[in-house]
């Protein structure tokens, strides 16, 4: 059985783009509109010879902030508890938002190893967000660009010991 990796993060940070990058096919819908990925999507990923199953989630994609606690987490939680590693993606250009912090807080209590992915970090655009992300207490973020395919070696090096 392949190791299981789950992608988690607030809407629009690039989860589906990362999924597509690792799976190498356009299996997940990517759009400027948050909420395009309505369901979990499953794929088989390859990263520099590392093979694993990967899940793209949409557990926090809901326009109504009042509904955040609880409801949208259910299906993400189901996937998370079967996972060996969670890739927690944030937008390093936008910096941390309260929702990122809420998700981080939730993730820390789940007992699954987390790799923090500083997405949209092509060029130097992510530097401030990357520094900010140390406040999450989740270790060194992996500077990444799902769109441009940057950071794959760093991701490999973080992932490989965990799966
Ligand atoms: P999701 O809602 O987290 O699944 O995010 P998507 O993968 O749908 O991406 C949201 C938007 O961010 C899209 O317009 C993507 O093209 C864009 N995006 C994703 N990855 C990157 C990246 O590495 N750099 C930049 N600049 N944009 C990105
Ligand atoms: Mg998506």
From TrEMBL:
It comes from the Bacteria. GTP 1 binds at residues 9-16, 56-60, 119-122. Residues 3-163 form the EngA-type G domain. Belongs to the TRAFAC class TrmE-Era-EngA-EngB-Septin-like GTPase superfamily. EngA (Der) GTPase family. Associates with the 50S ribosomal subunit. GTPase that plays an essential role in the late steps of ribosome biogenesis. This is GTPase Der. The chain holds residues 5 to 167 of 472 of the full protein.
């Amino acid at each position: 059985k392949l190791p299981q990796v789950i992608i988690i993060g607030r809407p629009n940070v690039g989860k589906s783009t990362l999924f597509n990058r690792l799976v190498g096919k356009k299996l997940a819908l990517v759009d400027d509109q948050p909420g395009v990925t309505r369901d979990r999507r499953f794929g088989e990923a390859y990263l520099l010879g590392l093979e694993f199953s990967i899940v793209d989630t949409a557990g926090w994609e809901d326009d109504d902030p009042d509904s955040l606690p609880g409801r949208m987490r259910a299906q993400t939680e189901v996937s998370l508890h079967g996972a060996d590693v969670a890739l927690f993606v944030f937008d390093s250009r936008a910096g941390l938002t309260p929702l990122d912090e809420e998700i981080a807080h939730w993730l820390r209590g789940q007992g699954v190893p987390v790799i923090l992915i500083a997405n949209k970090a092509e060029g130097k655009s992510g530097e401030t967000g990357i520094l900010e992300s140390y406040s999450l207490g989740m270790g060194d973020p992996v500077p990444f660009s799902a769109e441009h395919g940057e950071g794959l070696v760093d991701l490999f090096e973080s992932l490989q010991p965990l799966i």
